[in-house]
Amino acid sequence: xxxxxxxxxxxxxxxxxxxxxxxxxxxxxxxxxxxxxxxxxxxxxxxxxxxxxxxxxxxxxxxxxxxxxxxxxxxxxxxxxxxxxxxxxxxxxxxxxxxxxxxxxxxxxxxxxxxxxxxxxxxxxxxxxxxxxxxxxxxxxxxxxxxxxxxxxxxxxxxxxxxxxxxxxxxxxxxxxxxxxxxxxxxxxxxxxxxxxxxxxxxxxxxxxxxxxxxxxxxxxxxxxxxxxxxxxxxxxxxxxxxxxxxxxxxxxxxxxxxxxxxxxxxxxxxxxxxxxxxxxxxxxxxxxxxxxxxxxxxxxxxxxxxxxxxxxxxxxxxxxxxxxxxxxxxxxxxxxxxxxxxxxxxxxxxxxxxxxxxxxxxxxxxxxxxxxxxxxxxxxxxxxxxxxxxxxxxxxxxxxxxxxxxxxxxxxxxxxxxxxxxxxxxxxxxxxxxxxxxxxxxxxxxxxxxxxxxxxxxxxxxxxxxxxxxxxxxxxxxxxxxxxxxxxxxxxxxxxxxxxxxxxxxxxxxxxxxxxxxxxxxxxxxxxxxxxxxxxxxxxxxxxxxxxxxxxxxxxxxxxxxxxxxxxxxxxxxxxxxxxxxxxxxxxxxxxxxxxxxxxxxxxxxxxxxxxxxxxxxxxxxxxxxxxxxxxxxxxxxxxxxxxxxxxxxxxxxxxxxxxxxxxxxxxxxxxxxxxxxxxxxxxxxxxxxxxxxxxxxxxxxxxxxxx
Length: 709
What we know:
The chain is an alpha+beta fold. The chain has a six-stranded mixed β-sheet.
């Protein structure tokens, strides 16, 4: 029997390192292992990564040569900042006259607080002429004498004129310190924010370089020849060499792995992903098939680091119940793990004999209102997981499932203490816990304007069943627990796409400049191993900030998935009708390609124009895009330029707010090319032509346009 080619995802957590093997063709989970994270080994976390890989290969019967893709996610960069374990940064400011005034102010970064009472270790030196090699050497020697372990060069307007920063680094290279230029980290204007982002990146650079070298050497020694990738904080992966240059991109990547798993495995196109552990729940958004990202806050300051927009709530599967005055007053933020107590629901009925309710103070300074059960088997914590099991919310086979009788026995003493029955007590516990989560979910739905009629809740993490099912039940939203929810993060790492984002501030950007930014992003992911034929690039032009942003994604191999089941016409129609919330008889096929079908209907409202809502459904029966009102037209690659020019011309609006071209998406082959981020008609049409390039002239193209108000 031939062993399959596999994609390996490894998630390095604070306590455990989880690894999974996924079939590279079917994307089915083949194996999973958990090993302790090896923080204190002489090889650091690299030892745990290799141990997890060895056990995974043994479990699946695969050889190192069978590994087609290997990526890992790590909390090391995040932990380094949280713990203040960073290198001393030597910052060289460049400039004369007014520019010198601006750069000298950058010395204030030495006041950035890493942890209470511990500031970012930084030394500053200034050079007026970057071409003056003697002055640069003097500055570097002074910084080394002050303890600098890594160098950053920064100059005003280096985004447009990087020669000065580059000259400083060229002169400093013989000193053997890791170095970076501010313009290499981000190409956005804003000297202060750009340099601060570069300085924080540099502070973790030596530690990350050391780990990178160990991991790389260990994986190579293990016989794996597949390219080694690292999880980024925006839901994609990057090549190891790119991580060596910009380790800051791995900060906050832990939550990104989980939502990447939901996006790829669960094929969520619109919804909220909730990754629930023992102590907290990370809430993030998938909108129109893409993760929601924003510039992250690092060390209390905004940065130019684009990271997953994740909001953390202190409620998880192990969160303890708080009581007072004969009622449940809250849940969390302390968990059973912090209190050092086992969950009551995992105790045997014999251990729960003679149970009495008491309250404790989990840690010094905490209120003494956390409920515990003192019973024959010892002291136990009453948790969200106990309540969810007592109400039957945890499906059989789930990571957090326990014997329902034990769960009810765990809640019974507390119910008696509250003067109610088990079901009511368990409901009150879950209501109190999910109230905090619901506040955040509702805010994110508003912030990203999700359509509540189509958005779903997807739960991941080992504690998913303690939050997501009850939240779905009480909110009326559709909800489900992800398959293999306890290892959704390493699955996300294994399935993640190579990603690169290029941002430029270009006032009045021409179509040539926009296409150049697009091409730069595309080249970047191909250089990191993505198959050129499968790269997708989404371009956004923000006329208010003059920002041109291109996000390119691609797989390291062209995926030709051999799935055993494809949804038939009836299943796809039902999926569209369910999403549209109408009878299937009222739904019509408007257009389609081999990979996608466009379904639509008409709605008429009194005194209002007719609306034509549509749904795009893929071959698996998953709704990949929805629109409340859209125009759909089919053409070919040869005819598309003329057809699109006509459609865009007819649908573009002009007003006090400027020109607003329609939101355009093209169905091409297996792809949905999203061009909705461009408001100007001419660059929009230029981007459309770039998507059609190198395709057969008779290939069908479906255009989906939404008129902007």
